[in-house]
Description:
Layout: H1 2-12, E1 20-25, H2 35-44, E2 50-55, H3 60-69, E3 73-74, E4 83-85, E5 88-89, H4 92-105
Parallel strand pairs: 1-2, 2-3
Antiparallel strand pairs: 4-5
Helix pairs in contact: 3-4
Amino acid sequence: GHLWFAKQLVKEGTLASPALVQLCMGVPWGAPNDLNTFMAMVNAIPDDWTWSAFSLGRDQMPYAAAAVLAGGNVRVGLEDNLFLEKGVLATNAQLVEKAVKVIEGLGARIIGPQDV
Length: 116
């Protein structure tokens, strides 16, 4: 529903195009945490829009990988996941470092703020 609404806001001129959207997976009463729903959402994003994706808790890093593989960007942080691994509290920096390893392990490139 949120993606549909974003498209409507662009159509009405409330949001500029190309828009930036985040696919929020596994959020209660939002998009379910499954790859079929994720890919349906990815396929519904206009080609000129920029997007990122994330999921909550232990699925944060698998969805970082899924976002890269589907051609999007990655979002990680403590607001979505408190743990580096089961029972080990994370810092935001540790989550970013772990995501960098996942992303680079897939052969993708990390860019810095200047490039963004």
